[in-house]
Amino acid sequence: MERDAVDLIVEQWARARPDLDASPMRVLGRLSRLTRIAERELKALFAEFGLERGEFDVLATLRRADAPGGITAGMLARSSMVTSGAVTNRLDRLVAKGYVTRDLDPANRRTVIVALTPAGRDLIDRAVTAHLENERRLLAALDEHEQGALATTLRTLLLSLGDQP
Questions:
Q1: What does the pLDDT look like over 123-154, one tens digit per residue?
Q2: How far apart, in whole angstroms, are the C-alpha atoms of residue 136 and residue 24?
Q3: Positive or negative, the Cα torsion across 133, 162, 90, 76?
């Protein structure tokens, strides 16, 4: 079997500290390394569309919501799990680029409604198509069954650690 960097790290710990069980590193070390590689690849793809990761997330959230009139900024913040300040900064950039609008709700002047512009909708439709193709490329070493098993295993782990929809 081909070895990776994590194999070397676990072996080094076994020699340096044989009293420790470094086996959790086989999973979490690999997840960490995979995350860094995937983030680098995703960042490069989003840059092709003139977007940062957070901007893509906002546009994708608005597109998934499929609400022609938009959604509240609060809903957007809750779905993105970042601070309202981070959402505000992302929205400022996306408004400046012409991809979203941000208007006060006529029914409640304290509520801000965020919506995709036609240019924003076109951009996210193109970007998400390329994003999914990129993710397929990143997972190409695993067949459909392996991808399904890994997705199930990771869901189980996330749920056990308190992750919620």
A1: 999 999 999 999 999 999 999 999 999 999 99
A2: 27
A3: positive
- Write the class of the CATH domain 5-12+27-161: mainly alpha
Number of residues written out for the chain: 165
Domain boundaries, the chain: 5-12+27-161
Question: SS in 3 state form for 96-143?
Answer: HHCCEEEEEECCEEEEEEEEECHHHHHHHHHHHHHHHHHHHHHCCCCC
Contacts for 82-90 with beta carbons within 8 Å, 24 or more apart? 82/54, 86/54, 87/58, 90/54, 90/55, 90/57, 90/58
Q: How far is CA 23 from CA 10, 32, 81, 157, in A?
A: 7, 14, 31, 16
Residue pair 55/90 in contact by the 8 Å Cβ criterion? yes
- Stretch 70-88: mean pLDDT: 82
| 81 pLDDT tier (thresholds 50, 70, 90) | low
